[in-house]
Amino acid sequence: MTPAARVQAAIDVLDLVIEAARSNGAPADRLISEWFRARRWAGSGDRRAVRELAYRAIRACGEIPATGRAAMLRVAADDAQLAPLFDGSRHAPAPIDPDEPVADSGVAPGWLMKRLADNGVEHPEALLGRAPLDIRVNTLKSGRLELPEGAEKVAAANGWRYPPETRIEQSRAYLGGMIEVQDAGSQLTCEVVAARPGETVIDLCAGAGGKTLALAAAMKNAGRLVACDADRTRLQRLPPRAERAGASGIETLLLDANREMEALKPFVGAADAVLVDAPCSGTGTWRRNPEARWRLTEKQLERYAAIQSRLLDVAATLVTAGGRLVFVTCSLLDAEGADQAAGFLARHPDWRAELPALPAGTSRGAGLRLSPSHDGTDGFFVARFVRL
Question: Helix, strand or coil for residue 159?
Fold first, then answer.
């Protein structure tokens, strides 16, 4: 593909991403992969270039753009080398009309920018930088592990960091299950659980099990670890991951959304620790999913907050006296963080908050906030409660 053809390809991809954002369709990564799957003639250099152009445009536009062309024109307005490629040649975008619409620049939609400011989020532009590649050394299998070159230590106990473009999945350490890809902030939230060998620990919203595997390593495969989720497809990804990681004895439990207690009855009052990594807006993960900020609405935020409150109440019934409940969201909004923690304590006077002792983060209400600008991690809120 010529450079100009790559620009037009990025515009075509952006049109798909914009439409999906408006209709709550597939994420950008999947759309881009599917677009290239139908164009196998495109080389690896073309794929990389088109992908980078598309994500530059996504990151450049705060509000959802009208079209992919308007989004790419936003990038071209600040890139003297890009604008001349709109030359109307074969497979190239049409020449730029001085009067045609150009998408507005910005970090996020206006209502969301106000929320971030009101919630004390500083340097929101950091939410759109490229995320590094963080890995967790799997202490169940590390042995004489030799990390691939280029690693830098991070605050998480077993965490290391690589540049964004690192292809760690082809390394011997990854293929052998000695390391897992996991953001340093995610690793730190698992440390707050302080899971110990011999305990009964429940990961209530386990998904595909990234945090479950970290808990299994902390427990040294000794105790009872139950991974729960209402998404069968995601939960089914955990057993093969656990086998590769050498994490034995993890139980999986499929829940029925809004009827979780039907499956959880045997665990009432039995857990030493419960982790609630609740569904949320994902405002802390924009570095990885920048188009997510175009999808979020105030009504959706309210729905997430309601789900989080309900799951916290469910989790509280599972914890034994003296046990702990850890609440985590990958969000920087108080509605999904400090306000949730305050609401939980108001509803449950037989619990108290313990401020997590981490080598990163800033206090926010009863918990801690991790952020790209302050900690170099994805954005998280984490709170730890203890049953009296």
Answer: strand
- Select from 3.30.70, 3.40.50, 2.40.128, 3.30.1360 the CATH code of 133-181: 3.30.70
CA distances from 200 to 92, 109, 137, 192 (A): 60, 43, 23, 16
- One-letter amino acid at 71 equals A
Q: Is 19 helix (H, G, I), strand (E, B) or coil?
A: helix
Coil vs helix vs strand at 157 = coil
What three-state secondary structure class fits 321?
strand
Distance (Å, whole) CA 222 – CA 354: 26
Nearest to 312 by CA among 267, 272, 345: 345
109 burial via Cβ count (<10 Å: 0-12, 13-18, 19+): middle
Q: What distance in Å separates the CA atoms of residue 291 and residue 260, rounded to the nearest whole number?
A: 31
Contact 220, 191 (CB under 8 A): no
pLDDT digits (tens, 9 = 90+) for 341-358: 999 999 999 999 999 999
What does the pLDDT look like over 294-303, one tens digit per residue? 999 999 999 9
251's enclosing H/E stretch is: strand 250-254
Contact 152, 141 (CB under 8 A): no
Q: What phi, psi does 243 have (nearest 5°)?
A: -65, -45
> How much of the chain is in helix, strand and coil states, percent to nearest 5?
40, 20, 40
User: Is 330 labeled as catalytic in the residue annotation?
Assistant: yes
Active-site position among 205, 228, 280, 330: 330
Do β-strands 362-364 and 133-137 pair in parallel, antiparallel, or remain unpaired?
Answer: unpaired
| Residue 319 pLDDT > 80 | yes
Write down the domain spans for the chain.
3-106, 133-181, 184-387
Token pair for residue 225? 């670890």
The topology (CATH level 3) of 184-387 is Rossmann fold (3.40.50)
pTM (2 decimals)?
Answer: 0.95
8 Å CB contact between 181 and 134: yes
